[in-house]
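Appendix B. Extra example for self-study. Work through it before the problem class; the solution is given directly after the inputs so you can check yourself.
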Amino acid sequence: MTKKPGILALDNQLCFAFYSVSHAFSRAYRQFLAPLGLTYPQYVVLLVLWEQDDLTVKEIGDRLFLDSGTLTPLLKRLETAGHIRRTRDRKDERQVRIALTETGRSLREKAEEVPKQVGCVLGLSFDEVRALTQEVAKLRGRLHDSAAPSETS
Amino acid sequence: MTKKPGILALDNQLCFAFYSVSHAFSRAYRQFLAPLGLTYPQYVVLLVLWEQDDLTVKEIGDRLFLDSGTLTPLLKRLETAGHIRRTRDRKDERQVRIALTETGRSLREKAEEVPKQVGCVLGLSFDEVRALTQEVAKLRGRLHDSAAPSETS
DNA sequence: CCGAATTCGATTGTGCGCAATATATTTTTT
DNA sequence: AAAAAATATATTGCGCACAATCGAATTCGG
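Solution. Structure tokens for the complete assembly:
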């Protein structure tokens, strides 16, 4: 009965489709981000900070679905590059607050051109991009809920 | 004019949607693959081999959009685990042929249950999964074409 | 106020992804 | 056939992701 790859393969292809398109996007962004000395994960961290400055590591992680094991070294590299400052919170010494430097803020204009470049090759309309983004985000939510169905208090 | 995050953010959110849903899928698969001693990338390599056995490293890489820098160590781990055999091709000593062992073949049945489990939480119909998969694959194709527009000979 | 549980972040170790480079083997050119 | 170009894999180095663990700081329960 293993002669039914159809349904099984399809679900899988959806996962693989996301897996491979994610890498394809990463490569597409890389050619524009490399001149700025940024990787894609570093770029999305800056996107978060450009939207709201002075966040804790945890707040950044909540927005990006990343944990401290990923963010701590990444943020240290952003600090070394001069884009951010990391300082312990006075009120709660457990947290580290991340704030943009003037250098980090000034990178915003150049960085905002990047998705324009990449977006050109997608061949999607404004509405199509929005609909697809929302559909994918919905799936992500369901996967998260199934992975952590603990919030039943 | 930087007061227009709307359009810029949208393209970017599409990229981030893929980036984050890909990780979410990876985590969802992990809980089922870990008992089999497999990671998701190892799993997709086996999927390729279950579909067609005895491929070269390059052929696997072409199907998965991965290069030898990623595949060589991954395949060595699969070999150590006893799932595959790596042998130099007699005809062309440059290539390494990858063949499933009996152990690797026998893993198929259990592994095919995995996407069923994950698929349950998606809440999508067969047709919706198919349509979304194709749409995403189309985007991946466009990104690849734009990254390597060299085939103009 | 005190001890226990929780929260936050850092650290360690493993496994990708990929650029750059190296090496060996073919294939093509001359 | 010798030299040059192309091809296939391996290696190195860096940067994520993430599980597991740790230590320090805070909060909670009594």
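Self-check: The longest strand of chain A covers residues 84-88. If your reasoning did not lead you there, revisit section 3.
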